Automatic annotation (TrEMBL):
GO terms for molecular function: RNA binding. Residues 100-121 are annotated as: Disordered. PANTHER family: GLYCINE-RICH RNA-BINDING PROTEIN RZ1A, SC35-LIKE SPLICING FACTOR. GO terms for cellular component: nucleus. It holds the Pfam family RRM_1. It is found in: Nucleus. This is Arginine/serine-rich splicing factor SC30 transcript X. One of its GO terms (biological process) is RNA splicing. Residues 100-118 have a biased composition (Basic and acidic residues). Residues 16-94 form the RRM domain. Keywords: mRNA processing, mRNA splicing, Nucleus, RNA-binding. It comes from Zea mays. Transmembrane segments: none annotated.
Amino acid sequence: MSHFGRSGPPDIRDTFSLLVLNISFRTTADDLFPLFERYGKVVDVFTPRDRRTGDSRGFAFVRYKYADEAQKAIDRLDGRDVDGRNIMVQFAKYGPNAEPIRKGRVKEGVEKSQDRSRSRSPRPSYLFVRWVAVYW
């Protein structure tokens, strides 16, 4: 639920979104708003809920109008205890600037020539997805 109620999503163009991880399941947008407002103009606070149970999913999104204010919030709040939990705050990755989803096996540090199978049977295709924060 958004801190600003059910009036619909706020205008989020040209805003900077932070992903807040490891929040307590009882922490609400109303609890997070004053904490993050200390560091700049907060456009919205959104805490996703489980569709079946309505319970918090343990993370939130906070949107700032200006990048420097968002960075200040990251610097001051990342690693801080909130409701008995050590929260992690980082820029959210979403939309056109998100890392692309890659298909196939991903092996770091292995050259392409070493990655090839000698077998002619088709290799299974796996989809590895990095956390991409989607807001609405």
